[in-house]
Amino acid sequence: MENLSDQQERERIAQLAAVCVCSNIRRASRAVTNYYDSVLGEVSNLRVSQAILLVIVYLAGPQTMNDLAKMTGLDRTTIGRNLKPLAQQGLLTLTPGDDQRTRIVTLAAPGYEAILRVVPQWERAQAHMVAGMEQEQVAGLLGQLSAVAARAQEV
């Protein structure tokens, strides 16, 4: 049988687990990502994370891998791993930059076509996620997520 201090510790840990910002955001992120992936998967083999990379390069124009890493909040190794399959599919090109370590990422014509193919599905997924929310609520949610991300980067 647990003594009182063990029970109090268990309750303390249970309370922390229930309100943990990290675990709740990760759970929500997985659920939302899986939903978007399933909707985009109806017309493409792209995951939403890949579609977002294509869109970033489309909107920003050719970028270095380092600049893409900064834009997405990912480290350079992760961005390289994420770009490789897109380049292998011919959706992006990776060309040498000014020095040996720099790679320039450019959207290829099939990448643009892939974006056009998934945009209607992306819009449908987005509409589903914000259904029943006022525009101010959506803006508030996105603002809170940005604030949480900024707080996490404070050291």
Q: Could you please describe the fold and organization of this structure?
A:
- The chain has 155 residues and is mainly α.
- It has one domain (20-153): Winged helix-like DNA-binding domain superfamily/Winged helix DNA-binding domain (Arc Repressor Mutant, subunit A).
- The chain contains seven helices and three strands; from the N terminus they run H-H-H-E-H-H-E-E-H-H.
- The protein has a three-stranded antiparallel β-sheet with strand order 1-3-2.
- A hairpin with a 6-residue loop joins strand 2 (92-96) and strand 3 (103-107).
- 17% of the residues are buried.
- The model has no long low-confidence stretch (mean pLDDT 94).
Question: What's a quick, concise take on this entry?
Answer:
The protein is built from 7 helices and 3 strands, in the order H-H-H-E-H-H-E-E-H-H. The protein has 155 residues and is mainly alpha-helical. Helix 2 (21-40) packs across helix 6 (109-130), helix 3 packs across helix 6 (109-130) and helix 4 crosses helix 5.
The helix-strand sequence is HHHEHHEEHH
The residue fraction in helices comes out at over 70%
- Fourth CATH level, the homologous superfamily: Winged helix-like DNA-binding domain superfamily/Winged helix DNA-binding domain
**Portion in strands:** 5-15%
The average pLDDT value, as a whole number, equals 94
User: What global shape is seen?
Assistant: globular
Distance between the terminal alpha carbons, to the nearest Å?
Answer: 42 Å
Largest sheet: 3 strands, antiparallel
Strand order of the largest sheet: 1-3-2
CATH class: Mainly Alpha
Protein structure class: mainly alpha
Low-confidence segments, given as residue ranges, are none
